[in-house]
């Protein structure tokens, strides 16, 4: 079998070194004669795994000491409900920035718990899809917090600015961008991310919450989504997704060995430049997002002649380039190029694209 590159948006490609390590120790983890999946989450062996993973994650994102890291269940969508439940307090509204599919989905969920103040930032610039810059966001004084999604996985559109809204509690859905670039955690009240894109296997969700925001959950919030309960129980109020936690820990170690988030930032820029460069240099391919809002993680592109989509997907699959089909609401193609995707994978994709154009253009 030749090398396969998996461009899936999530669950997504994992570093092959991490998978090999997991394979080696699968049936006899640390000499225990069992797998890490089969031991108690309260055993000293698993606690060591859990603590190391948290520490490495903290180091990678430079998380200040006054933030808790919670290892949760339920994916990012559970957080869509947990956020209002934990942060609304006595307020009746929260600001929700709408820049795409996932931000909009968060608003739909928030409507169950409050009257979200939706701030639509979708715009066009030079005929391309764009987002309004933060200085133009009209925030509301009554809002308990402002929620936004810096990288829209489906729309392939992103906000690279970091928030600077004074005392406002800023909440960000980082599901498809976490660890891809350095961020200043102190600017956020809560950040959260489903693990299955840029961290590890599905089933784990990371939440980073500033300590002063704990203890404000509404009565209706299920205990497993109450940040205070989770923090007090070191994310073990109920049984955590132990295998996903362990594997994510291996990914964090891998990231550190690769030079951490600063190195990933450079690599992700190089990968995105290469792919957008090929798209922009051709009339055969097209990306309709304004350059300053292009996602470096999820690159949607269309073929000028969409009747070739099917053969593009068939041929790319044969060439070992998997999961390039665009999301059903957008169509066309999408290449998700998270941290685990090597530059070589993007080179192979761009070479395939150039060759495909030569043969079919
Ligand atoms: N937010 C973003 C930005 C996402 O990309 C996704 C998943 N594609 C979600 C939320 C939903 O995540 P989950 O399936 O983990 O609930």
Automatic annotation (TrEMBL):
Under the GO molecular function aspect, what terms does this record hold?
O-phospho-L-serine:2-oxoglutarate aminotransferase activity
All residue ranges annotated as the Aminotransferase class V domain in the record: 4-349
Signal peptide range equals none
Annotated metabolic or biological route of this protein: Cofactor biosynthesis; pyridoxine 5'-phosphate biosynthesis; pyridoxine 5'-phosphate from D-erythrose 4-phosphate: step 3/5; Amino-acid biosynthesis; L-serine biosynthesis; L-serine from 3-phospho-D-glycerate: step 2/3
Subunit structure, interactors included: Homodimer.
Quote the NCBIfam families the UniProt record gives: PRK05355.1, serC_1
* Name this protein carries in UniProt: Phosphoserine aminotransferase
Origin species, per record, is Pantoea trifolii
- Quick one: which gene encodes this? serC
